[in-house]
Specification:
mainly alpha, 2 domains, globular, 17 helices
Length: 421
């Protein structure tokens, strides 16, 4: 009972932090959609997607190893490991920035973003990863309050600066991008200072060994991250190419409304994953049937929430976005279902991370990402922005079911016997 209460309390704190952080675009929606036109909103959407792509390469996904190694290393060894990850982050950022600079003419055609914002985006993504390393260490240490306070402060800076630049200064999409960028860079810098003061930045004594370990964990995840991006982000590139950037802006409104469910599931998983790792590591036996029963109940609840969001979509769009974005209402139900399946995916992928079998997860996610590109291209051509939502929902369902099968292979759980006596 005490464990359940602690898990519930942590989940509530992470939920509040998640809503404050990832919910900024949703909270700003009624303001931005009444001041900016769909084309401006499309540029904002493309910048967010581009940051996600850059974040997959800066640091080479080694930051994901920090949370896993926390339970396996001594404090001195952990500091060495974190420093190594930061050196890899810095090196890969410089290399990627050079590549983006020289490839910017092609990237501008694909994204609609100017070269200066593309190059700046690399460093902004790096600052975001630095912040994630600090947040990951708080998460695995079971410190949701400081975790939430850091995210909320970053969110407040982001929102207030964006509103000021758009409404008071009179900027268009540039105001939103500047507000977001200043917040990420400022708090990324603060995260580095915090890591230094906490003793996580030291002179590395075993850099080569830790670098191999971090890269062995992180590099196989790059196809996984890219596959995930191909599922959740490629739609905006295809919509911009086949339709126009204004359509991408309308579609982004539907994404942000469906993302409400994504906030809930991601927040819960932030509390649930460390708890599950501890349960799976127990020497006195893991309560497998109880875990599986709870997982099934969770699946049912989030699907019902997704359907409810879809039914209420016309009213939500009318209140939150206005008439210029009303065409987004038909897309919302597919986005909500897609995020529900993504939440189901998070629950089963934890078993694969526990067994450190990230390579097979990467291949599967990358394959689903390729399938999503084909589906999105076909369905957008056939059904417009609604087709993009349909492709997203189907791809997320396939990713969930495929990952569930992989999880059962590497770490069997009693999925078929959970309700038997």
């Amino acid at each position: 009972m005490i464990v359940s209460q602690k898990l519930g309390q942590s989940a509530v704190i992470y939920l509040a932090a998640n809503i404050a952080n990832a919910g900024v675009p949703f909270l700003l929606l009624p303001i931005l959609t009444r001041v900016l036109d769909p084309a401006d909103y499309g540029i904002i959407a493309m910048f967010a997607v581009t940051l996600g792509v850059f974040a997959a390469f800066v640091g080479l996904s080694v930051h994901g190893a920090v949370g896993v190694r926390y339970f396996q290393y001594t404090s001195d060894k952990m500091a060495d490991f974190v420093t190594t990850c930061l050196i890899i982050l810095m090196s890969s950022t410089i290399i990627l920035a050079a590549i983006v600079f020289f490839a910017s003419p092609y990237l501008t055609l694909a994204t609609g973003l100017p070269r200066n914002w593309l190059v700046l985006g690399v460093f902004i993504a790096a600052a975001q990863i630095a912040g994630q390393i600090r947040l990951s260490l708080w998460q695995v240490a079971g410190k949701p309050i400081i975790y939430g306070a850091f995210q909320f402060s970053q969110t407040l800076t982001n929102a207030l600066l964006s509103i000021y630049l758009i409404l008071a200064v009179g900027m268009a999409w540039q105001g939103r991008l500047i507000g977001q960028s200043v917040a990420l860079v400022s708090f990324g810098t603060l995260a580095l200072l915090w890591l230094y003061m906490a003793g996580f930045i030291v002179r590395p004594r075993d850099f080569r060994s830790h670098a191999r370990d971090a890269l062995r964990f992180g590099v196989p995840l790059i196809p996984h991250v890219l596959g995930g991006l191909m599922i959740v982000a490629v739609d905006r590139f295809i919509i911009t190419g086949l339709l126009d950037i204004a359509s991408a802006g309308i579609y982004m409104v539907a994404v942000q409304i469906g993302q409400v469910l994504g906030l809930l599931t991601d927040a819960f998983n932030k509390a649930y994953a460390p708890w599950l790792m501890r349960q799976l590591s127990r020497s006195d036996g893991t309560p497998e049937k109880a875990i599986v029963r709870g997982t099934y109940i969770y699946f049912a609840v989030i699907v019902v929430i997704a359907l409810s969001i879809g039914v209420a979509a016309p009213q939500i769009i009318s209140v939150m976005a206005g008439s210029a974005f009303q065409n987004a209402d038909a897309v919302v139900i597919y986005m909500a279902l897609g995020y529900a399946f993504s939440g189901c995916y998070l629950m089963v992928t934890n078993y694969i991370f526990f067994e450190s079998k990230t390579a097979i997860l990467a291949y599967m996610t990358f394959a689903v990402g390729l399938l999503n590109i084909a589906l999105t291209y076909w369905l957008v051509g056939k059904n417009g922005i609604v087709g993009a939502g349909q492709a997203f929902a189907v791809s997320q369902f396939i990713a969930f079911v495929g990952t569930w099968g992989l999880a059962q292979r590497v770490h069997p759980m009693p999925w078929r016997k959970a309700f038997s006596s």
